[in-house]
Amino acid sequence: MAIKQIFDVVLAIVGIILFLPLLFIISLLIVFDSRGSVIYQQHRVGRNMKDFVLYKFRTMYVHQADQKLLTVGSHDARITHIGYWLRKYKLDELPQLFNILIGDMSFVGPRPEVRKYVELYSAEQKMVLTVKPGITDWASIEFCNENDLLEKSDDPETFYIKEIIPLKLDQSLRYIRNHTILIDIKIIFITLKRVIIN
Question: Cα dist. 14→3, 98, 111, 133, 187 in Å?
């Protein structure tokens, strides 16, 4: 088993144990806040172009007429009251500890995308699919305010496809070409710092 995989599994187990009370409290808050399941599941494209189910805490109302893939702005009308705070502090991502534990994801790696957008990747950009996707990487840090950038655009989806995706993929490719466990640890700490001061 590779060092990175051991690192991921051990840290995921420790994280699940430490955050178990928080996971329970968040689950209760979601139940009391709005109707629907606690966990949101979405198919994303992972390593070697294989689909997997990504887990998040549900942060939106169910059965919305507008089911766009992109969330535009921090105050998107589809976001629940508790969902706003979960997104603000990235707590909605905590269930991905289980994605890491079962081997679909890593702590650090290119953020997994939905197939609709992956199909637009160039041959070079598809190199990001040669490694496990992650919860965070350089692109996640640089675009931590992505929703706010989309909110300022007249055509959020076109802006996302033409402007944001290429820049994010450049950063993800940079990570793939130069990554070590020490770099992973550095990215994790920078991500936590960004979340805390957000």
Answer: 16, 12, 22, 20, 18
